[in-house]
Amino acid sequence: MRVLAVDVGGTHVKILATSESEKREFESGPKLTARQMVARVKRLARGWRYEAVSIGYPGPVVHDHVVAEPHNLGAGWVGFDFTRAFGCPVHIINDAAMQAFGSYRGGRMLFLGLGTGLGTALIVDGLVEPMEIGHLPYLKHTYEDYVSDTGARAPGKEEMAQARRRCRQAARSGARAR
């Protein structure tokens, strides 16, 4: 089966289809709605053949349904009929869970995705569970405020930028929790 994979992020939407080698993307942002995303993805994927769509969504998803509006995008995601809009079967999963599963090689894995936000997922013996810990309170903000691109760029948040650099350095060095 040929699948169109869609990674919806707070700053970009990236797509790639089975048997294609060229990743394509466009800017997203705080005004992007689900309807706009689908229209732009369909235009960008013109010429590609696919029979199903898999969407990584930046927020909670239950049984292929978006259950909360995204923090970094426009409204209109909850209740949107992606299957009807794309005209083929659509599977929706939390974006961090999708990214984690794509790099999973067995056993246990805690995934921390540092980008526009902070995506988190846990995989144990092939079962993936998105965690959404980025929105948990920490000090006067949330974890996401300290380590995400958005938090690191906010005015007066140099300490957040430093914390983010330390997290990325630890991740690059291969630091592992035991």
UniProtKB/TrEMBL annotation:
Cross-referenced Gene3D superfamilies: 3.30.420.40
Composition skew (Basic residues), residue ranges: 163-178
SUPFAM superfamilies per the UniProt record, alphabetical: Actin-like ATPase domain
Span list, region Disordered: 150-178
Any Pfam family matching the protein: ROK
The protein's name in its UniProt record: ROK family protein
Source species of the chain: mine drainage metagenome
